[in-house]
Amino acid sequence: MNDRLRQLLVSLADRYETETFINDDPSWFMHQLDDPREQETAAFLAMCLSYGSRKQFMPKIAQLLQMSHGKPYEWIARGGYEYDIKPTKQCFYRLYTCQDIYRLLSALHDLFGQYGSLSLLAKEAAAQASGDRSDVESVLVAMASFFRERGIKGLVPAPYTSACKRTCMFLRWMVRDQSPVDLGLWASFIDKANLFIPLDTHVLQTARRLKIDTGRSAGWKAVTLLTRQMTEPFPDDPARADYALYGYDVSL
Question: Could you please report the per-residue DSSP string of 184-214?
Answer without folding.
Answer: -TTTTTS-GGG------HHHHHHHHHTT---
